[in-house]
Amino acid sequence: MASGFGIVLSQTAGSLQFLANGAWTKRFQVGWAGMAGMAAACLAREGFKGAAAPIEGRHGFLNAYSPAPEPERVLAGLGTDWELMKTGVKPYPSCRWGHAGIDAAIALRAELGLRAEEIEDATLGISRAGMLLIGEPASRKARPENIVDAQFSGPFVIATALATGRMDWASYELLDDPGIRALMARVRCENDPDIEAEFPRNMSGKLTVHARGQRFVRRVVVPRGEPETFPDEAAFRAKFDGLTRQVLGAAQAERLADAVLGLGARDEVAGLFALSRPGAAQDGAQDGVL
């Protein structure tokens, strides 16, 4: 019953309460929104009557979420300005507030040839908003107990990036690795005034590493994945492969990626959905749906 209520909480509008126990609802929240949109479209198609003026009405979306809505902005630049291209794409499967630090850690490790055992300590400077998610409480962030804890742990993602030069889904297999645990104990997060000045425009970070008797600093104002640092197709596919091949197999994952990238030229999406189901490539080939 408690878990059921916890899942319902995420259906109200999303919630950070998942941080209390490493609940799976963080990733569920985005999927639920997509499923709700699909359900709404299907219901409307079948004649289910929806509310009139859902956006601009007295109790519509804009008035419900803003004290002074400007409905005319909904149509401003329609057909010429594409908001989707102003969004970011996370290159690492962890909280976005740690990504600038991960970029810095990977760069410093490559540039200096750093080894984990050489690192005396490391400090990730972030904004106050970032501290609330990946830096505090410090005692808990330094000892993540599960994957969700680790995704929201500045010490874990920085230690992993410094030790291995990467931060991907397979990195969570190192959660209980003694070497990573030892390095995590030497990593801390703090609110940095220089980085705070970049907020909210940028989710910046500054990594300071003491090693070999020296102090090394790397400041990343715009982390990888933002519109200004948008990944190319190769980077997109590398992340996609890392998340799908173990579920779909290499061949089917490749076909699904090609289908998504060619979405604009498709007349229907039934085949694309079929490709997203494990084992569907063989089934679809037999049924002729692909």
Mean pLDDT: 92
Largest sheet: 4 strands, mixed
**Could you say what the CATH topology of the domain at 96-220 is called?**
60s Ribosomal Protein L30, Chain: A
Distance between the termini: 41 Å
Q: Which CATH top level class of the domain at 96-220 fits?
A: Alpha Beta
As residue ranges, the low-confidence spans are 285-290
CATH H-level superfamily title of the domain at 96-220: 2-methylcitrate dehydratase PrpD
Structural class by helix and strand composition:
alpha+beta
Portion of residues in beta strands equals 5-15%
Proportion in helices: 40-55%
State the main characteristics.
single chain; 290 residues; alpha+beta; 60s Ribosomal Protein L30, Chain: A; four-stranded mixed sheet; 14 helices; 4 strands; globular
